[in-house]
């Protein structure tokens, strides 16, 4: 059975109360529930994790190799700063979908830069919590076609 990792970075534990006008009203546990239901409807397994620490996110990416077929990564602000996360993704050679709740390209200029995008399969940005099942469909379809 195909298995995927959904990994969430800094400050995403605060969803629901964090700038709801930007990030919406869903809390991360609600998003996890939706993702679990979506994974089972698609016959896939899923691990869901969040960390505020760059090193812990890198450890999750390393641990995914050989366990998961691919990763959905909302790296939060580390998207715009972390060469270490980019290197981790390149090292494990797993397909990664970069995900953002907000449309980062419609926001401040520093959010237009992504260290993840050059090593990602693709990017989903701006669809709020609905982006998670969209990203799952994109990744699962890719894995079905490419293994
Ligand atoms: C985010 C966008 C980032 O720019 C920001 O730092 C976040 C959340 C999003 O989901 O829209 O923490 O990744």
Characteristic key phrases:
147 residues, binds 1,3,4-trihydroxy-5-OXO-cyclohexanecarboxylic acid, 5 helices, 18% strand, alpha/beta, 5-stranded parallel beta sheet
Percent in helix = 25-40%
Distance between the termini: 11 Å
What's the main sheet like?
A: 5 strands, parallel
Residue ranges: pLDDT <50 for 5 or more in a row?
none
Please give a structural write-up.
With about 150 residues, this protein is an alpha/beta fold. The protein is globular, with a radius of gyration of 14 Å. Helix content is about 35%, strand content about 20%. The chain is built from five helices and five strands. Bound molecules: 1,3,4-trihydroxy-5-OXO-cyclohexanecarboxylic acid (DQA). The site of 1,3,4-trihydroxy-5-OXO-cyclohexanecarboxylic acid has 10 residues, from loops.
Concise summary:
This protein is α/β, with parallel strands linked by helices and 147 residues long.
